[in-house]
Automatic annotation (TrEMBL):
Keywords: Cell inner membrane, Cell membrane, Membrane, Transmembrane, Transmembrane helix, Transport. The lineage of its organism: Bacteria, Bacillati, Actinomycetota, Actinomycetes, Streptosporangiales. Its main location: membrane. It is a multi-pass membrane protein. It is found in: Cell membrane. One of its GO terms (molecular function) is transmembrane transporter activity. Coiled coil: none annotated. This is Autoinducer 2 import system permease protein LsrD. It holds the Pfam family BPD_transp_2. InterPro entries: ABC_transp_permease (IPR001851). Residues 329-356 are annotated as: Disordered.
Length: 356
């Protein structure tokens, strides 16, 4: 081995690691995130100070966590429109049941986790077992949760969240040098992100991507597609529950809590380069997409643009992503046109006289 090869090896490893981290053409989102932050810092230099950046991360953490859950569903070839209403339902239910009593915090959080798992399980089983398109299934769940909560509260949430419940969303480790406070939301976000990265490197993660890429081929390979996708829906709802706890702690209880979060999460995931239809994209890029969306809206605030521009931007991003996904399917269509082998689960049985 030459000296030059030895010298360049570390650089090559760094480039290879960076390529894997932002693989699948999703590296653009990282460049866009840096560009947006550069503009924000130029407009407001104080935003670059550690306390301001940590406050930004505290606010963005629920969306990033929602994006992780949405990524798991989208990369498997499905879509989850129910997470926004689920977040709202969880916060309203928590406020009504806790009603300011600290002793009720832990039991209510456990109930929220169970409720989130049930919602995800219903979404998954209806989609995979009953074969209802996921966009219809989760749209129905979204409307059921939205209507049920407003019927229960009359459009005006009651009760109050305890201080212990609100700590993860707005509290942290205090009196640290330079940064002041290290938010619990940041630590929770890092834990969720690390768990998601590990999950996607496990066999389940590979099966999830294979299912989204070609569920028929995955089924022939022995993957239980219905189970893989159902687990993705359950994880998405559980992460929406975590996001609801953080949002409730950060913003409190309002009638509008959770509204539109499902579309923000989808926007974040597709901005991160994850292809609608499944099989393409990384979870790290999806998380970067969520940070980019939050940074973009922060830039709009710095420019004093009206908040009504946000849905327009989200719509344009989703339309562009759908167009890109259609283009990817067109490129891959020649492969799907190849002749397929006979179904292995329908062998020809011999007749009674011995002939086939």
């Amino acid at each position: 081995m030459t000296r030059s090869a030895v010298r360049t090896a570390p650089g090559s490893l760094v480039r290879e690691a960076a390529g894997r981290l932002a693989g699948g053409g999703s590296g653009t989102v990282f460049a866009l995130l840096v560009l947006i932050f550069a503009v924000v810092f130029a407009l407001n230099p104080s935003f670059a100070e550690p306390p301001s950046l940590l406050a930004f991360v505290k606010k963005a953490a629920p969306l990033v966590i929602l994006a992780v859950g949405q990524y798991l569903v989208i990369v498997s070839g499905e879509l989850d429109l129910s997470v926004g209403s689920l977040v709202g339902a969880q916060v309203v239910i928590a406020a009504a049941l806790i009603d300011g009593e600290p002793d009720r915090t832990v039991p209510v959080v456990l109930l929220m986790i169970a409720f989130g798992a049930v919602v995800g399980l219903v979404n998954g089983l209806v989609t995979t077992v009953l074969r209802v398109p996921s966009i219809i299934t989760t749209l129905g769940t979204m409307l059921v949760l939205y209507g049920a909560i407003r019927l229960w509260t009359g459009g005006a949430p009651t009760g109050a969240l305890s201080e212990a419940f609100r700590q993860p969303g707005r509290g942290g480790i205090e009196d640290l040098p330079v940064i002041g406070q290290l938010p619990w939301a940041l630590l929770i976000l890092l834990a969720v992100g690390a768990a998601a990265i590990v999950l996607m490197r496990l066999p389940y993660g590979r099966m999830l991507v294979a299912t989204g890429d070609n569920d028929t081929a995955a089924r022939f390979s022995g993957v239980r597609v219905w189970r893989v996708r159902t687990v993705a829906f359950v994880l998405s709802s559980l992460l929406a529950t975590v996001a609801g706890i953080l949002i409730g702690g950060y913003a409190g209880v309002t009638a509008q809590v959770g509204d539109g979060l499902e579309f923000m999460a989808i926007t974040a995931v597709v901005l991160g380069g994850v292809v609608l239809g499944g099989g393409r994209g990384t979870v790290v890029a999806a998380m970067a997409g969520a940070l980019t969306v939050e940074a973009l809206f922060t830039l709009f605030n710095q420019l004093s643009l009206p908040s009504t521009i946000q849905p327009t931007v989200q719509g344009l991003i989703i339309i562009a992503a759908v167009g890109y996904a259609a283009r990817e399917r067109t490129r891959r269509s020649p492969r799907s046109a190849e002749p397929q082998s006979p179904q292995p689960d329908t062998p020809m049985e011999p007749s009674r006289d011995g002939s086939r």
